[in-house]
Please model this.
Amino acid sequence: MRKILSFFVIMLMSFSAMAEHHGGEKGAENADLHAAIKAFNDAYENNTVEKYFSLYAEDATVYFGGDARQDIPAYHELWTSVMAEGGGVELNEMSDAKVQVMPSGDVAISTAFITNRTRAPLLGNTTSAH
Model:
C-alpha cells in the first residue's frame, strides 16, 4: 500500500511540475499568449474589423458550423460586408478560458465557453405603404 501511495504522490508532483513548467493556466511566461487571446476576443466583440483580422495567421482557415471552410481573405471580405450592412457582434463574453501549451512550447490550444450575440445585417427598408 505504501508503494502505491508514494507512486501516486510522485505522479501528482510530476503533473504539477509539468503544468508549472508549461505556464499552467496563468503562467507568467505565457502572459503574451493570454494577452493575445484577450486582444482577439476584444477586437471581435468590439467590431474592430482590421484589428481582429490582424490577429489571424495569413494562411489560417476558418470553419463556422455547417458552412464551408474559408480562407482569411474570403472571411475578411464577408465580415467587412456584414459590418457595412449594419451587422456585427453585440456580445462575445468568454468564461472558463483554459490555455494548454504543448511540451515543445511552439503550439498552444485555447478553449473557452463563449456567450455570443450577433446582429444581422440590415436588409434595407422593409416597410411598405398599403
